[in-house]
Amino acid sequence: MERKKSPDGGWGWVIVFVSFFTQFLCYGSPLAVGVLYIEWLDVFGEGKGKTAWVGSLASGVGLLASPICSLCVSSFGARSVTIFSGFMVAGGLMLSSFAPNIYFLFLSYGIIVGLGCGLLYTATVTITCQYFDSRRGLALGLISTGSSVGLFIYAALQRMLIDFYGLDGCLLIVGALALNILACGSLMRPLQVSDCPLPEKTAPENVPDRYSIYNERVKSQEENINILEKSYSNEAKCKGASANRDWKQENLLHKSPTTVAHAKEPETYKQKVAEQTYFCKQLAKRKWQLYKNYCSETVSLFKNKVFSALFIAILLFDIGGFPPSLLMEDVARSSNVKEEESIMPLISIIGIMTAVGKLLLGILADFKWINTLYLYVATLIIMGLALCAIPFAKSYVTLAILSAILGFLTGNWSIFPYVTTKTVGIEKLAHAYGILMFFAGLGNSLGPPIIGWFYDWTQTYDIAFYFSGLCVLLGGFILLLAALAPWDTCKKQLPKRTPTTFLYKVASNV
Question: Residue 447: which residues within 8 A CB-CB, separation 6 or more?
Answer without folding.
Answer: 56, 318, 319, 320, 321, 322, 323, 468
